[in-house]
Write a structure and sequence with these properties.
alpha+beta; Glutaredoxin; five-stranded mixed beta sheet; 3 helices; disordered N terminus; Thioredoxin-like_sf; DUF1636; DUF1636 domain-containing protein
């Protein structure tokens, strides 16, 4: 797999953003530890599955060539429009619907945070990081 290839986007007519601003990024180059030479790569299979399902749901999905989370692949990011972004690892090609559920939850959030309650288990145990929005101001206790 050539990871220098251009990334792709589901809903190319909505490539800018959707109304909520939530975008799902999926790493296409993630490998499976049990079969590192498998083609198509499991990351590509996850990206394709998320894109296929997202087109029906109107959610913007972009595949990226590497999210540099190789020790915890398969990896994906849910980026909130003006809210927080979430990095997930330990996913499988079967977790497409869980990523879209998370995207819908993030889009519906009033405070830009994805609620813990109702979040799919794969997005609870697989969370790697939560990243603040660009305009974040320091929290003080």
């Amino acid at each position: 797999m050539d990871i220098t290839a251009v990334s792709s986007c589901a809903n190319s007519e909505a490539e800018g953003e959707n109304a909520s601003g939530v975008v799902v990024f999926v790493c296409r180059s993630c490998r499976d530890e049990t079969d590192p030479n498998a083609e198509p790569r499991p990351g590509a299979r996850l990206a394709d599955a998320v894109m296929a399902t997202a087109q029906e749901a109107g959610i913007v999905v972009r595949s990226v060539n590497c999210l540099a989370n190789c020790k915890r692949g398969l990896s994906a990011v849910l980026r909130g429009g003006d809210g927080w972004s979430y990095v997930f690892g330990g996913l499988t090609p079967d977790d497409a619907e869980d990523l879209l559920t998370g995207a819908r939850m993030l889009a519906a959030s009033a405070d830009g945070l994805m609620p813990w309650r109702g979040r799919p288990d794969t997005l609870k145990r697989g969370m790697v990081a939560r990243i603040p929005p660009f305009d974040f101001t320091e929290e003080r206790s």
